[in-house]
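Workshop exercise sheet. Pairs work together: one partner reads the sequence aloud, the other fills in the structure field after running the prediction. Swap roles for the next sheet.
Pair: D.N. / O.F.
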Amino acid sequence: MPYTRAAFFRDRIPVPVRLDFHSFESAFLPAFHHHIQESRLHTATFDLREVREADLPEMILLAAAAEHLRAKGWTTIRFHFGDLCSAERTHFVQFVQNWGLVGFLAERGFDSDWDQISGVDPTIVLPIRELTPITLGTVVEDIGTVLISLCPWIASKQVLSIATALVGEISENALDHAYPPSAATRRPLRVISARRVLAKRHDTKEYWFTFFSYFHEFTDYIELAVIDGGVGIAKSLRPQWRATISRKIREEQLREPFRAKLEDELACLRWVLSKNRSSRVRDLRRGYGLYSAKQHATIGWGGVMCLRSGHSRVIRLPEGASGTISDSDALQPFAGTQVRFFLPLVDRSREIQEVMDSLEKATGASS
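Structure field:
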């Protein structure tokens, strides 16, 4: 049966003209949840015909939304991009094609009205990659190699910091905790990407970009995102999901009001970013997980870390910065966990070394 105009508007989930951090929360998610509640046929079409500009993490989150519907048993899920030739959409068309987003959706089994065309984008540091235990080592190696090529003046400490403390730690966290063993029969969504945002593109209203524009007006920066469509941090930390936690760490957790914190999702996010809260056995090689990543990003790099899971979000700004974006526990619920870093490409080798020394000292004291 052909897909009719009436069926299109029946299944339509509108995507905002500018798809970014704010509009995803304020416009897309309300429309998404409304469609879930109202649809009787369990079919959906993500309508991108009006989109003129989009940020990469939010485009990946559209795929996470589609995976959420598929996991709920929805039968037909489409992406409708619309006119390829509109002059107003030239930038968006190039962006989608250059990042291979059409191919990414097709590879995951979603229909769309565009074909993937090869393209090259100079801002790509790490193209969209599926995270698996097999690919993780390659991802860590590749981002280090590309960073050295793009910024040969960056110290080896900074390359090591982004490759291991950020990419390695956060990716392992997604691999270890995003999905329970019972989800092995369905294909998980765990992806990573990194792009270089040029100084001339500092045109967003988000605080972290404004911060960089003000303090590093002529500086490019790296935007790194790790996104999964799993159970979320709060649920993954409940006792039934913590079979691999060592007895020592488990006893540490139970000495504090841990169970009460698990009922409060925002408190749980703050908890995992605090010192000595790694859920894996700590040793000199492995560090402190999310806490380590936060220290490297905010104190070492002088950047920003944003952690969102469920209906809560925690944002950590550079040391000494004051901003208007606050933590929230009143967001629209969304499956999985999203971790983002915004790192100015400036020499911070001394600060990163101080973070490494501090973490090594703390790790040694706890072993």
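Discussion prompt: The two ends are 64 Å apart (CA to CA). What would you look at next?
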